[in-house]
Amino acid sequence: MDRTNTRSTGTVHFRLIIVSAISFFLGLQFSHLTALFQTDFSEGGLIDSDATEYMTWAPDEIEYVEREGNQENHTPSKPGRRNRKPPPRYHDSNYTKESFEPLPWSLPKPSSVRYQTSEEFMADYIALKRKHNIPLPWEQDKYKEDKVTLPRPIIGLNFPKSATLTMSEYFKCAGITSHHTATQDGRIGICMMENQLKDKPPMEGCDTELTKKGVIKPIEVIFDIGLQGPPCYYASVHDGGLENIAKHYPDGTIMLVTRNATKWAKSITGWNGKIMKLWADESCHFDGSLEGEGMEYWASQFVSARGDISRKKVQYWLDFYEAHTQKIREFALKHLSLTYVEVELENDKMAEQLELYTGVKQSCVQVCHPGPHWIRKHDTTSKCHPPGEEPPEIDPDVENDDGT
Predict the structure, then answer these.
(1) What angle do CA 62, 65, 69 make, to 5 degrees?
(2) pLDDT score for 39
C-alpha cells in the first residue's frame, strides 16, 4: 500500500515538473516574441498613440519582409492560410527593389497659387470656368436627380493622412461605389501605374466590383490611390500620371482634400518611419536623388533641411506637400474639361462646401479611423463616427490615419 502511494506521488511530482518546465519555456518564448515585435515595430521611434496605427499595416510589412527573405534564400513561402488564395492581379509581390526602376517625378517651384486657401482657389477656378462658358456640374439639371452631382469617375488625389478614408466613406454614404486603397483586383496604385505605362485608361482592369448578389457594378470613386512601394507610384507626383487621367477621362472629376501643411508634415513624419524611408531614398526617391529636370532643386532642398534622417526633415515634407497641392491646382486650371473640387479639412464649412459641390448631405461627412486594431482599442463597432460623437476615450489631439 505504501509502495503504491509512493509510486503515485512520484508520478504526480514528475508530471508537475514537466508542466512547470513547459510553462517556463513558453514564457521565455512569449517574452522573446514580445521583445522582438517591440523592437521591429518601434524602429522608427513610434510613440504609443501611433503604434496602433502602424500595426494596422503590420501584415503588409511582414509579408514584404518575408518575401525579401524568401528571394534571398531562394525558398518558397511556407504553406498556410496566406497561400490558399492567390494574390490579386495588381499586387506588390510582382515587384522588388531590384526589379523596379524608380519612375521620374516632378513638383513645381513655388508660385502664388500655392499659398491660396482652398476657398480662394475654388473661387478663382469657378470664375475661370464661367469665363470660358464651361458649365459647373452641380448647377446642371442632368445631375440634379443623380446621387452625386459630379461626373464620374471621381479620383481622389489626397496624400496619406489627408482624409482619404473619410472621403471614400462619404461617397459610400451617398450610395455609389467607392473604394479606398484597393479593389477586388488589387492595389489601385499598381493598376493605375501599369495602365499609364501601357497608355491605357487609369482604371482599366480594376474598375468594377462584384457584389454579394453576383452583380457587376462600375467603380465610381477611388481614394488613397498611391503606394510607397516597391513599386512607388502616385499619379499626382509621377510624370504623366495626371495627363493620363485627363486623356482618358476628359470629363471626369479630380478631387483634393487639403490639410494644414505643417500639421500634415508633423503627422506623416511621426506616424511611420518606414514610409518616410521608402519615400526618400529606398523606393520613391522623393529626396531628389533621381536624374532629371527639377531634381537638383529638390535634392538641394532635402540636403539643406534640418534633420539627419528622412523622417526628421519636417520642413522638407511640408514644402513637398504644398508643391503637390500647387501642381494639382495648376493642372486643373489648364484642363478645364475636367471637374476639379478642392476642400480644406480644417475648414468648419467643409461639409457645407462638399454638399454644394457633390449634392451629398452633410451628415455623410464622418470621422473615420483605419483598421480593426483601432476599433478594438477603442471598444467600438464602427470605424466611422459623426463629428463630436467619437468614443469618449479618444483624445481629440491624437490623429488617425486620415488626419481627421
Answers:
(1) 135
(2) 36
CA–CA dist 281, 179 (Å, integer): 29
| DSSP 8-state class, residue 358 | H
pLDDT score of 373: 61
Three cell numbers, residue 283: 523606393
d(CA 109, CA 106): 10
| Spatial distance between the Cα atoms of 356 and 360, rounded to a whole number of angstroms | 8
Residue 378's CB: how many other CB atoms inside 10 A?
A: 16
- How far is residue 250's CA from residue 243's CA, in Å, rounded to a whole number? 10
CA 403 – CA 263 distance, rounded (Å): 9
pLDDT in tens, 108-164: 999 999 999 999 999 999 999 999 999 999 999 988 889 999 999 999 999 988 899
For the CA atoms of 114, 119, 120, 121, the dihedral, rounded to the nearest 10 degrees, stands at 50
φ and ψ of 246, to 5 deg: -65, -35
Report how far apart, in Å, the C-alpha atoms of 282 and of each of 276, 289, 304 are: 9, 11, 19
Dihedral, CA of residue 383, residue 237, residue 309 and residue 223, to nearest 10? 0
CA distance 23 to 181: 43
Residue indicated by cell numbers 462646401: 353
Pairing of strands 367-368, 182-183: unpaired
In 204-273, beta strands by DSSP E: 208-210, 216-218, 221-223, 253-258
Extract the C-alpha cell encoding 89.
492581379
pLDDT in tens, 247-272: 999 999 999 999 999 999 988 888 76
> What is the structure's pLDDT at 401?
43
DSSP 353-376: HHHHHH---GGG--EE--HHHHHH
